[in-house]
Amino acid sequence: xxxxxxxxxxxxxxxxxxxxxxxxxxxxxxxxxxxxxxxxxxxxxxxxxxxxxxxxxxxxxxxxxxxxxxxxxxxxxxxxxxxxxxxxxxxxxxxxxxxxxxxxxxxxxxxxxxxxxxxxxxxxxxxxxxxxxxxxxxxxxxxxxxxxxxxxxxxxxxxxxxxxxxxxxxxxxxxxxxxxxxxxxxxxxxxxxxxxxxxxxxxxxxxxxxxxxxxxxxxxxxxxxxxxxxxxxxxxxxxxxxxxxxxxxxxxxxxxxxxxxxxxxxxxxxxxxxxxxxxxxxxxxxxxxxxxxxxxxxxxxxxxxxxxxxxxxxxxxxxxxxxxxxxxxxxxxxxxxxxxxxxxxxxxxxxxxxxxxxxxxxxxxxxxxxxxxxxxxxxxxxxxxxxxxxxxxxxxxxxxxxxxxxxxxxxxxxxxxxxxxxxxxxxxxxxxxxxxxxxxxxxxxxxxxxxxxxxxx
Length: 457
Description:
About 35% of the residues lie in helices and about 20% in strands. It has 15 helices and 15 strands. It has helices at about 70-80, 100-110, 125-140, 140-150, 170-180, 195-205, 220-230, 235-250, 260-275, 285-290, 295, 310-320, 335-340, 360-365, 385-400, and strands at about 5-10, 15-20, 30, 40-45, 50, 55-60, 85-90, 115-125, 150-155, 185-190, 255, 280, 325-330, 415-425, 445-455. It is globular, with a radius of gyration of 22 Å. The protein has one domain: Metal-dependent hydrolases (TIM Barrel, Alpha-Beta Barrel), CATH 3.20.20.140. Helix 3 (about 125-140) packs parallel to helix 5 (about 170-180), helix 8 (about 235-250) runs parallel beside helix 9 (about 260-275) and helix 9 (about 260-275) packs parallel to helix 12. The model is unreliable at about 210-220 (pLDDT under 50). The two termini are about 15 Å apart. The longest helix is centred in the middle third of the chain and has 18 residues, at about 235-250. The protein is α/β, with parallel strands linked by helices and about 450 residues long. The strands form two sheets. Strands 6-7-8-9-10-11-12-13 form an eight-stranded parallel beta sheet. Strands 1, 2, 3, 4, 5, 14 and 15 form a seven-stranded mixed beta sheet that branches.
């Protein structure tokens, strides 16, 4: 075997041009211009960017139980094609990840996946799951310690979404308290169930959606766009407010999943000013799509939380700019096209794929080319840098969930993405590796592409 020399690449985090020498064991030996290249395979990286393999802290890979939608193998391949080498997978599979046996089964399945590191959230919906979580986190057996290593935190659904994993409200404070005591990261899907139920009833009763969250003056399929009215922005705001109050009361570290509204973001911003242990993520579909995309997407634009207004989208970009947003995570949630397009649109499953398209969409922004084909640059669009992508899609999720992933450093395993930042190409579902074979960004022209993955350890 030979060593590998990445010659003349630019480190995305620092902007410095350098060589990276990788030993035959897969460990990075040198990072410096003019690194020793004797007996090494030389990879010309001139004009290319070197990123660490990125982290997506919110995915649904559907296995076990929903393999007709996706598998760990197919979605890991999709992640790697998008420059992502570590994912945190949600518990709403069949069976759900609410027992030690279910977690062990996922860990066993993930062992056969090459190069992409899978970690798993534990779900808690009732008291017995909380006791199991305590046993997992405090157990002294080698098996429990092994499984704990693969568990990245606890996922709470504060309203029903795919998989119907809404937590029993009577044990909510106990869950927060346990996570605070055991120092377990807690990630929450924040929507208020009572408010959503009332909004749904109002829309169904009226037969039309007069919500301000719908497109202004757009001719849309009322039944599809009504999804945004049935899960209104106020629902997210109320749920986030209550979750932050619970975190403040118990001392739990709380991460808000797929934050989608300006008012929800303002609550997180205020909590950070109080130095509360609150972090949050936003999803690419909320950064690049709005309710104005319903006419084009139909049910392919249906997800939870739903599409929001352009003003909400702009607020999310502003939150990235001022540091309120900690992570960008895809909420990758594939369904088959048949499922998305068959029957009553409001009965179509919620969720979109995204693990393979996140990086090219963000790279387009670094090139100052907002990729949406029909709508202009957002008013408060943030001019992303390469180092911002590393921060939002590697460093912060790595820290928040204690994942132990390695940056591009000497004496660390080489897990590197080589990017050509100038390649222009078109996103097409048929060319993506996700099993579902579609994307809500179909036909979008993007700038920046993964050229090669170096994964030695």
